[in-house]
From TrEMBL:
InterPro entries: Dullard_phosphatase, FCP1_dom, HAD-like_sf, HAD_sf, RNA_Pol_CTD_Phosphatase, TIM50. It catalyses: O-phospho-L-seryl-[protein] + H2O = L-seryl-[protein] + phosphate; O-phospho-L-threonyl-[protein] + H2O = L-threonyl-[protein] + phosphate. Its EC number is 3.1.3.16. Pfam families: NIF. Keywords: Hydrolase, Protein phosphatase. This is protein-serine/threonine phosphatase. Coiled coil: none annotated. The keyword Ligase does not apply. Residues 28-186 form the FCP1 homology domain. The lineage of its organism: Eukaryota, Metazoa, Chordata, Craniata, Vertebrata. It is an enzyme of class 3 (hydrolase). Gene3D superfamilies: HAD superfamily/HAD-like.
């Protein structure tokens, strides 16, 4: 797959469907922007191999066999989710299968932050990638933000993205808590596109070496 800098070119999305992925917005969320948050390598890291310090162990049946999935929570994810739930209408959107991601989300989101959960079947399969087409959500695109570690996931709408580094097991990671002040400011902005453009430029500059050497 191409590197991050190649992935961010805008790819025309398919026409929006007659029926949108999200239900009508809750009255408590009126006036809030919608933030779409990825799961794997953004909020958690999961493995079929046993992890001694796993936060969750989730049984998942695959082809009639039950496998134990070991899940690590990214540092500060609890604080991040609680704050995001205060500021935005939050939606979990993952390319993973619901039979894995749904029970993980049950354990992860103890506060009911996610107003909706979208899984692989809600993605668009495009050039070998599961893409999260934000135009299918049923929300005004100028008020939608996607937080994701994979540029391929938001290739249709890179201008709506807050990119994050993939996380696996670094216990010193502070990316989620470092993003909170940014999101506090973003929640009050009318023009999110200019703010997000500046963020992506900073992200590219900070992570230039890793991005150029990465193979997605």
């Amino acid at each position: 797959m191409p590197c991050w800098c190649e992935q961010v070119q805008v790819i025309a999305a398919p026409s929006p469907p007659e029926k949108f992925l999200l239900p009508e917005i809750n009255t408590s969320d009126y006036g809030k922007k919608c933030v779409v948050i990825d799961l794997d390598e953004t909020l958690v890291h999961s493995s079929f191999k046993p992890i001694s310090n796993a936060d969750f162990i989730v049984p998942v049946e695959i082809d009639g066999i039950v496998h134990q999935v070991y899940v690590l929570k990214r540092p500060h994810v609890d604080t991040f989710l609680q704050k995001m739930g205060e500021l935005f209408e939050c939606v979990l959107f993952t390319a993973s299968l619901a039979k894995y991601a749904d029970p993980v989300a049950d354990l992860l989101d103890q506060w009911g932050v996610f107003r909706a959960r979208l899984f692989r079947e809600s993605c668009v399969f495009h050039r070998g990638n599961y893409v999260k087409d934000l135009s299918r959500l049923g929300r005004e695109l100028s008020k939608v933000i996607i937080v994701d570690n994979s540029p391929a996931s938001y290739i249709f709408h890179p201008e709506n993205a807050v990119p994050v580094q993939s996380w696996f097991d670094d216990i010193t990671d502070t990316e989620l808590i470092d993003l909170i002040p940014f999101f506090e400011g973003l929640s009050k902005e009318e023009d999110v596109y200019s703010v997000l453009q500046n963020l992506r430029s900073s992200f590219l500059e900070i992570h230039k070496e890793a991005i150029l050497g990465a193979s997605w």
